[in-house]
């Protein structure tokens, strides 16, 4: 595939603050899979976008200047890779992400990161609604235990699976990291 038609890899919220959460989560090997996909994207010369959440809530671990807002060491952007800051779960809202992609002729995205039912799902929904060919890597995202509307505690695997089900077909295609590497060929 020509480099100008390769999908962009969006790595969402892989920041220090995500390492410190006490809530149980799923996909314990997601970071390793994300790092593997990132290495493949870099080797292919494909576009990489690092999305960083910067909170507007004082005291948040993602408040500007707090250690939690920094990228995890394995996901530190290279000088030529794009960094997109966001203040809400959806990386397209109040940001220049869509314009950055369109100016470069990027029409496809591969989304990884955290959390599946929050920033990953919100960003993938917008990407799909914007007409971008969107892929979410099920094994390179993770979620946390969460109570549903009725107060029932749902395990992280169930939260993750439901978020992926919400996206499949209508907004995105759900792949695993191995399948995503074929997109670079």
From TrEMBL:
Keywords: Hydrolase. The keyword Magnesium does not apply. One of its GO terms (molecular function) is hydrolase activity. The keyword Disulfide bond does not apply. It holds the Pfam family Isochorismatase. Residues 8-177 form the Isochorismatase-like domain. PANTHER family: ISOCHORISMATASE HYDROLASE (PTHR43540:SF1), PEROXYUREIDOACRYLATE/UREIDOACRYLATE AMIDOHYDROLASE-RELATED (PTHR43540). This is Nicotinamidase-related amidase. It comes from Pseudomonas panipatensis. The lineage of its organism: Bacteria, Pseudomonadati, Pseudomonadota, Gammaproteobacteria, Pseudomonadales.
């Amino acid at each position: 595939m020509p480099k100008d038609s390769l999908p962009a890899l969006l790595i969402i919220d892989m920041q220090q603050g995500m390492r410190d959460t006490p809530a149980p989560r799923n996909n314990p090997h997601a970071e390793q899979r994300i790092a593997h996909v990132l290495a493949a994207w870099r080797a292919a010369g494909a576009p990489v976008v690092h999305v960083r959440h910067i909170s507007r809530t004082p005291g948040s671990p993602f408040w500007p200047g707090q250690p939690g807002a920094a990228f995890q060491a394995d996901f530190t952007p290279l000088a030529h890779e794009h960094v997109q800051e966001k203040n809400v779960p959806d990386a397209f809202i109040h940001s220049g992400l869509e314009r950055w992609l369109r100016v470069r002729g990027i029409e496809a995205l591969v989304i990884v990161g955290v959390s599946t039912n929050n920033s990953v799902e919100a960003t993938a929904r917008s990407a799909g609604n914007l007409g971008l060919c969107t892929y979410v890597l099920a094994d390179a995202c993770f979620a946390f235990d969460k109570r549903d509307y009725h107060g029932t505690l749902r395990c992280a695997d169930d939260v993750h699976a439901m978020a992926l089900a919400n996206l499949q077909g209508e907004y995105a295609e759900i792949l695993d990291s191995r399948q995503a590497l074929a997109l670079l060929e």
